[in-house]
Amino acid sequence: RAKKNYVAYFEPEPPQPGQLGRPKSYGDKLKLMECFDYIHLFSTVSCQVYGRVEEVSILALNLIWKPTGGLIRFVFAVTSRGPIVLMCSDLNQDPVVALELYCTRTWIEVMFCHLKHLIGAFQFRFWSKKMPRHSRAPKTNRALTAPAATNLGKVQQCWEAYERFVMLGAIALGLLQLIALRFTASIWQQHRGFLRTRSRTLPSERTVKQV
Question: Is the pTM for the entire model greater than 0.70?
Answer without folding.
Answer: no
